[in-house]
Automatic annotation (TrEMBL):
InterPro entries: AceTr (IPR051633), Gpr1/Fun34/SatP-like (IPR000791). Belongs to the acetate uptake transporter (AceTr) (TC 2.A.96) family. Its main location: membrane. GO terms for molecular function: acetate transmembrane transporter activity. GO terms for cellular component: plasma membrane. It is a multi-pass membrane protein. Coiled coil: none annotated. This is Uncharacterized protein. It comes from the Eukaryota. It is found in: Membrane. The chain crosses the membrane at residues 35-54, 60-79, 91-111, 131-148, 155-177, 189-212.
Length: 237
């Protein structure tokens, strides 16, 4: 009886393997969107950091930032997220969709013709600064969950999401300080936010180099793999 059961189990396993092997693997033929995604985020963060740091008298409310916010980082990330969905990468899909809409929404607010700032009476009013500060702070909370997940991925991603988290926190603090009339303190917070955005952009460009080296160059650029700790934890469990 056990012999029959063993033969039956073996046949079932062979049949299951055959079915799996014959399943279409068209996902493997999809291009990796990671280099573009990290490049778009890096370019957007670097551009924004110039405005936050008041580089060459550029301000954060400059309409030219809309190009990066709404298109490169906004539409670009949202479109790239669909690749990750087809591949079944839940984390990547969630991050790209979230930040795609965040950047697009942030860029939309800065467009004068939308009338959003006029609704609050201008960009210097307490109500506008409080609203924008709350908007950024909530996204800092959302980003914190992403940061936790990266602790089992690689050191570079931990650095990127840590700097982005600090960027968002100080950005929100800047708006809240401006809303309370503490303009000088708000400027200091904004510059601190810009410094963290600049640091995050450099790490993002480093990640772009990593992915491009994997695909086109004969050498590798390490990201600081942390997945071995994840698997070690599973083995202990």
């Amino acid at each position: 009886m056990s012999k029959l059961r063993s033969d039956s189990d073996e046949e079932a396993q062979v049949f299951e393997t055959a079915i799996i092997d014959k399943s279409p693997r068209w996902q493997d033929n999809l291009a990796d969107s990671s280099p573009f995604v990290m490049g778009a985020v890096a370019t957007t963060l670097l551009t924004i950091s110039f405005g936050m740091l008041n580089f060459r008298d550029v301000t954060l409310q400059a309409p030219v930032f809309v190009a990066d916010l709404c298109f490169a980082a906004g539409a670009g990330l949202i479109i790239s997220a669909q690749w990750e969905m087809l591949k079944g990468n839940t984390f990547s899909y969630t991050v790209l969709m979230a930040f795609g809409f965040f950047y697009a929404g942030y860029g939309y607010v800065t467009i004068p013709s939308t009338g959003i700032a006029d609704f609050y009476g201008g960009t210097s009013t307490p109500s506008f600064n409080n609203a924008l500060g709350a908007y950024v702070l909530v996204w800092a909370c959302f980003n914190f969950f992403f940061l936790l997940c990266t602790t089992r991925m690689n050191i570079t991603y931990v650095g990127v999401f840590s700097f982005v988290e600090l960027c968002l926190i100080f950005d929100a603090a800047s708006y809240f300080a401006s809303a309370e009339g503490k303009i000088e303190l708000g400027v200091h917070f904004m510059k601190a936010s810009g410094a963290f955005a600049f640091a995050a952009s450099i790490l993002c460009y480093y990640t772009v180099l990593h992915y491009l080296c994997e695909d086109a160059l004969p050498f590798r650029v390490p990201l600081g793999d942390l997945t071995r700790y994840k698997y070690a934890h599973k083995r202990k469990a």
